[in-house]
Design brief:
Layout: E1 10-15, H1 20-30, E2 34-39, E3 42-46, E4 55-60, H2 62-77, H3 79-90, E5 99-102, H4 106-122, E6 128-134, E7 146-153, E8 162-168
Parallel strand pairs: 1-4, 5-8
Antiparallel strand pairs: 2-3, 3-4, 6-7, 7-8
Helix pairs in contact: 2-3
Length: 170
């Protein structure tokens, strides 16, 4: 009997509707993904030639805008909420919620890390930040051939807003 092969085939992010166009600009500027769906109700990216192998979607959800508004108000009224969100933001990037992907080479990885840092300075409205970078030999890398960069897009909200970009030295 054959063992079933289960694979992740997509990630979906709900975003405030008024932020969808800015999310598109940010993702297009920062990541190597191919936009293959661009509709008012769905923004989709392929991570490979096979859209069924890996895809990323962003969908406008009005309730997200309402939640973000309420969180903003509560952060002022309840300092412990601000503290909790700040604690999540300070957590080791590899332990926090994130979605990971791999680029083709270490050279591409290095170029993209530098470009993301530049874009973060040039486009503050993306709320973009490289929150951690691990390279083999730096004493923190989990493997001798693994490069990791954790990229946070605050534009996506205070949770589930981080991507891990990896490369393998071959």
């Amino acid at each position: 009997m054959a063992t079933p092969q289960h694979r992740w085939n997509h990630n979906n992010f709900a975003v405030a509707p008024e932020k969808l166009a800015l999310v598109r600009e940010c993702i297009d500027a920062v990541f190597p993904w191919v936009r293959f769906v661009d509709k008012p109700h769905l923004l989709g990216y392929r991570l490979s030639d096979d859209l069924y192998e890996g895809a990323l979607y962003f969908r406008p959800v009005p309730a997200v805008a309402e939640l973000e508004k309420l969180l903003h108000e509560l952060r002022r009224e309840r300092p412990e909420l601000e503290g909790a969100l700040a604690g999540i933001a300070r957590a080791d990037a590899d332990y926090a919620d994130h979605a990971g992907f791999r680029v083709a080479s270490v050279a591409e990885w290095e170029e993209r890390v530098a470009a993301i840092a530049r874009i973060a300075r040039e486009r503050p409205e993306f709320e973009l930040r490289v929150i951690d970078v691990l390279r083999p030999g730096d004493g923190r890398a989990p493997a001798p051939d693994l490069y990791q960069a954790f990229v946070r897009i605050g534009l996506l909200g205070p949770l589930r807003n981080t991507f891990e970009m990896q490369a393998i030295a071959r």
